[in-house]
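Sanity check

After download, print the first record. It should look like this:
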Amino acid sequence: MAFKSCLLALLLVVFVTQRCIAESPGLSRRSFPNGFVFGTASSSYQYEGAVKEGGRGATVWDKFSHTFGKVIDFSNGDVAVDQYHRFEEDIQLMADMGMDAYRFSIAWSRIFPNGTGEVNQAGIDHYNRLINALLAKGIEPYVTLYHWDLPQVLQDKYEGWINRQIIKDYTNYAEACFKAFGDRVKNWITFNEPHTFAIQGYDVGLQAPGRCSILLRLFCRAGSSATEPYIVAHNVLLAHATVADIYRRYYKPTQQGSVGIAFDVMWFEPMSNTPEDIAATQRAQDFQFGWFMDPLFFGDYPDTMRTRVGARLPKFSTDEAALVKGSLDFVGINHYTTYYAKNNSTGIIGFLFNDTLADSGAITLPFKDGKAIGDKASSIWLYIVPQGMRSLMNYIKQKYGNPPVIITENGMDDPNNPFISTKHALKDEKRITYHNGYLTSLSAAIREDGCDVRGYFVWSLLDNWEWAAGYTSRFGLYFVDYKDNLKRYPKNSVQWFKNLLTSA
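Expected structure tokens:
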């Protein structure tokens, strides 16, 4: 009898706890300013599939993912979650939750299968259908022009982002999109995470196109980790600024849209209070976020980069610096986690890597004295530290003059565990706790600290193909059954968001 009483009490606690979680206590629409935008985010290669339909050309990720050993589960994005064919179904899922917006990327190779030349009308038609279907449901499109899927032909022709020709070809592509979609698309993101694809693609070689020279070139056949990441980033900044200038001159007067970039930004805390670790923490941020933000707001790279990289860091001409500076209408932030940073006092890293990590002189880790900085998600790099969101927003406010910010990605993943049932996989209370914590932190940054943040996009609506992690990682609010026709099932977090977004 006593056992039954205890069991009933325990069940009551579990029920009340889950009910409280589902009702998102203390957090509602009113926790954010009027007009604050909630949405979900995706990318073309991770979602669309249909890689050989509609005239689409091959991309660097098509080649990379089909190269043995590059993706952990040997999968690829040929089908992904088939949103190319199922976008109407997925838009309805967004509408049912009460989402205001959808951030998706256009595949450059659907518009220009050869990277340049003649526009592919089938690609234009597809994105017109997608945009119109979103607007018909009252969902605002936020369009990313480049989410890592460079047309393979441009990589083969002149090595893509390490050649200045890319600026001209990217500008031509962006203008084609402004002309075709700008009457309805008012929010443009020129690049997704340029820091990530500069580092992962050209420094450590773990993502397309897989160039590097670290560790005595054990992983890559070609590349220079000491120079190419900086060249790529420089060309990205010039491409963005050129496109932003063209938009402002020729399209904004009639289309009335805005242009930004989505940056990947960890927050860093010093490993200790020593001057060396505090300085290293700032260097870690300079070599991640300041690398792009300082040119965009101040006209040049951070002093720490100029000093430590030297002649390997490209220079802006006077005209280029003027073009880049002030070329953002808003700052997109993809923020997931927080790490500790410490001074690199050993020369081993420089010897083995000779890259941006060695240049920064900072080591970043999620552990301190053997203790993790927060609870861990599935991804090896993702630790749950909600207060990092508020700290990062205040850093942007203080250093860059409180520009308009949109959280263009935030979320966490569960493992794709083949040994648990679908029913069990839908119980994602950890994800609910994650979003509740990060949104509470974000609300405090806005309401209490005056940070100018205007939107929040969840990564992601659906479980999807996660780059080098393949299908081993599940970030979605909706569970995708990869074994049964990619059926979508709502996780508990769907109801949590629905309650939040419909709350008074």
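If your output differs, re-run the checksum step. Summary of this record's structure: The CA atoms of residues 293 and 301 lie 8 Å apart.
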